[in-house]
Write a structure and sequence with these properties.
alpha+beta; Aldehyde Oxidoreductase, domain 3; Aldehyde Oxidoreductase, domain 4; 3 domains; 5-stranded mixed sheet; 18 helices; 28 strands; 28% helix; 25% strand; globular
């Protein structure tokens, strides 16, 4: 039978049969003997003191087990861990808050009952005597000298300031032939994964610790966080992430609910489960984006950008959960452009709103949006084609690796090649001609063409893999990453199959269980294949090298004379003398080995990446705008993305499709809003708009391939790239369509009413 190489092949996902048949098991599906259910009492106020909590009525409800307040649980754990450990501990809170709440949705008590519905009913019966305090729901208002302060020991609501000044930006602006300015809003978004968060905690009578099942992207991180919080050794806490129905970044860190259920399970010696309601998700799970930016670019007449000045304000919400976001936006501020002079600042500001953390792209979509809108504004100011302005400012291919003026090191890139490919497949010049034809026809919808050329940073830290050959020749992979839809069961099996000559269907990948997998940092930041895959690559190399030595012994040849060819280990030039991997694995677990070869056939490896990878691409969005209603329709979308070599092209395309959907949805639909007092105005899916399939055209995808020198696979991340590139492309397209109306900029989301009003104000 002919051997077929799998790396780079289009293969069906291993994960799909169990997912589409309903055989997959999520945290909400797990039932343990004696299981009880938890519901939370949450604050209706954005800022208030807790005078007292009366649970007397709730405790009389049918099916009740216990009502526990924050004060009663206070001794069970330490305050929630901080994202930035240098901050004072008072700038956080207990998992069940005590004394004071700082956003609507903050939990102050937990109810345990026989059923989820009984727990929820009892939670509604808990009475809390609140003393409302002045609140601030707007990030700019939070900067005012007289704004209500979230923490008494802070002089203001600014949690962090990041700055960078490189070159001589002041001189560049003074000598500029033109200066363009924009003020932009990157609105707050909600993650809205299909599966909301869920936690099940059960005491472990053998160790005195506990087992926690949780819908997380980072099982080992949750274990470490719980151990620190509960003051327990890590080796008596087991965290399992079963199937996870989407994360997008909002399921990365330790949440209060995980800490509360763990503490209550230990205290009451009961298995306890909580499944987040969708409205709880909207209020209590971290949000994303939430930035405003004031931007300036210094230009020469030919479109060359000589300097960039940015003033970014990052909304943190009530607790420091992502002070790194503004810094990431600053580090990526120059995008794909060689801009020698920069003056960058970001302020991270506390508000009485749900905390903001990582969400698909985490700081990089905001940076790409800022610079790509600015490049279009520069083109409009100079009456140049947006593609030409970009081309004149690209970092050239021979400049890599390059540390940009904004302070980040790019590994490799050929930005002009990606743009040229995007312009070619979209038939850019024909689109321009069609646009002019429509302008001459008052009955035709307006046509807009939007470009974006983006770069992002992704992959960080370390990760791990164990490759274990069983005596039968089947292989089990244990990985420290924790996929939740990315498809590593498939891509990792492709790698192992090719490198070891093992049939694809005989490889099993296990993850997300701290009791069996090596220590890892989880799946986030488009790092799964880059870092986790590189650890797997190195571990597999070790297994392959040992298999070669065993094969040499079995075939009575020198190890250097053994090669893997068409899935068989053979003596070079003598195909008749060959072995299968199963034959070698069978011998590995016997005494019939040379003295210098240990028994067994498995290996562990950790890979730590020195520098991030920088995937990039170019997108073209084509939209039409109805002149009468302002409705936007995305007619076609062209995406050229460079993530280095693709192990599984089909999975890469799936990641791009999902990323495009979320990026386009931010441009046109999604927005979490608060009033001035910190009350959410879009706290359910009745008000918060998420896209449906009908909102999108069929996407046209293409690629360039620029390997990364940072890892043995040469790969770059792809999970967040399309989200980063698509939002500015769509907004640029809509603004392009509205140019005849004198529209220079509109803030997202670009809903019909906003566009209609802009056209009426011509």
């Amino acid at each position: 039978m002919a051997f077929s190489a799998l790396m780079g092949a289009r293969v069906k996902r291993k994960e799909d049969p169990r997912l589409i048949t309903g055989a997959a098991q999520y945290t909400g599906d797990i039932v343990l003997p004696g299981l009880k259910h938890v519901a939370f009492v949450r604050s209706p106020y954005a800022h208030a003191l807790i005078r007292s909590i009366d649970a007397s009525v709730a405790r009389q409800q049918p099916g009740m087990v216990a009502v526990v307040t924050g004060e009663e649980l206070r001794s069970a754990y330490q305050p929630m861990p901080m994202e930035d450990e240098s901050k004072k501990k008072t700038h956080t809170h207990y998992a069940l808050s005590v004394e004071r709440v700082r956003y609507a949705g903050e939990a102050v008590a937990a109810v345990i009952a026989d059923s989820a519905s009984a727990a929820e009913d009892a939670a509604q019966a808990v009475g809390v005597d609140w003393e409302p305090l002045p609140a601030v729901g707007d990030v700019r208002a939070a900067l005012a000298p007289d704004a209500p302060r979230l923490f008494d020991d802070l002089a203001d609501n600014v949690a962090q300031v990041w700055t960078r000044k490189k070159g001589d930006p002041d001189k560049a602006f003074a000598e500029a032939q033109r200066v363009v300015k924009l003020s932009l809003v990157n609105q707050r978004l909600v993650g809205v994964p299909m599966e909301t968060r869920a936690v099940l905690a059960a005491p472990d009578p053998f160790t005195g610790g506990l087992t926690v099942w949780t819908s997380t992207q980072a099982a080992h991180g949750i274990r470490s966080g719980l151990a620190k919080l509960l003051r327990l050794p890590e080796n008596i806490i087991r965290v399992i992430a079963p199937e996870v129905g989407g994360g997008f970044g909002v399921k990365i860190g330790l949440y209060p609910e995980e800490a509360v259920l763990a503490a209550l399970a230990l205290r009451h010696k009961l298995p306890l489960r909580w499944v987040e309601a969708r409205t709880e998700h909207m209020l209590a799970t971290t949000h994303g984006r939430g930035q405003t930016a004031d931007l300036e670019a210094a230009l020469q007449a030919d479109g060359t950008v000589t300097a960039l000045r940015t003033r970014v304000i990052q909304d943190l919400g009530a607790y420091p959960h992502g002070t790194f976001l503004g810094e990431l936006t600053g580090l990526m501020a120059v995008g794909v452009y060689r801009i020698p002079n920069v003056d960058l600042e970001s302020k991270s500001v506390l508000t009485n709103t749900t905390p903001i953390g990582a969400y698909r792209g985490a700081g990089r979509p905001e940076a790409a949006y800022n610079i790509e809108r600015l490049m279009d504004a520069a083109a409009a100011e100079l009456h140049l084609d947006p593609a030409e302005v970009r081309r004149r400012n690209f970092i050239p291919p021979d400049a890599f690796p390059l540390k940009t003026a904004s302070g980040f090191k790019y590994d490799s890139g050929e930005y002009a090649q990606a743009l040229d490919r995007a312009l070619d497949i979209s038939k850019y010049q024909l689109l321009k001609t069609e646009q002019q034809r429509r302008l001459a026809d008052p009955s035709a919808p307006l046509l807009g063409i939007g470009l974006s050329t983006y770069v992002e940073m992704c992959a960080f830290g370390y990760d791990s893999a164990i490759v274990r050959a069983e005596p039968s020749g089947t292989v089990t992979v244990y990985t420290g990453i924790s996929p939740h839809g990315q498809g590593q069961h498939t891509t990792f099996a492709q790698i192992v199959s090719d490198k070891l000559g093992v049939p694809f269907d005989q490889i099993v990948v296990k993850h997300g269980d701290t009791a069996i997998t090596p220590m890892g940092q989880g799946t986030m930041g488009s790092r799964g294949l880059v870092v986790g895959g590189s650890a797997l690559w190195r571990a597999t190399d070790k297994v392959r090298a040992k298999a070669m030595r065993i094969a040499a012994h079995m075939l009575e040849a020198a190890p250097e004379d053994i090669e893997l060819n068409e899935g068989r280990y053979q003596v070079k030039g003598v195909p008749g003398k060959s072995l299968t991997f199963a034959q070698i694995a069978g011998r590995a677990y016997t005494d019939e080995l040379p003295d210098e070869v240990d028994t067994g056939l498995e290996a562990t490896d950790f890979f730590r990446i020195a520098d991030a990878t920088c995937p990039f691409g170019a997108h073209v969005a084509v939209v039409e705008v109805d002149r009468e209603t302002g409705e936007v329709r995305v007619l076609s979308y062209f995406s050229v993305d460079d993530c280095g070599p693709r192990i599984s092209p089909m999975l890469a395309e799936g990641q791009i499709h999902g990323g495009l959907a979320q990026g386009i949805a931010q441009a046109l639909l999604e927005e979490m809003t608060y009033d001035a007092y910190g009350q959410s105005q879009t706290a359910s899916l009745m008000e918060y708009a998420v896209p449906r399939a009908e909102a999108f055209p069929m996407f046209t995808l293409d690629q360039t391939v620029t390997p990364s020198p940072t890892n043995p696979l040469g790969v770059k991340g792809i999970g967040e790239a399309a989200t980063i590139g698509s939002t500015p492309a769509v907004v640029n397209a809509v603004v392009d369509a509205l140019k005849p109306f004198g529209v220079r900029h509109l803030d997202m989301p670009l809903r019909p009413e906003k566009i209609w009003r802009a056209m009426q104000q011509r």
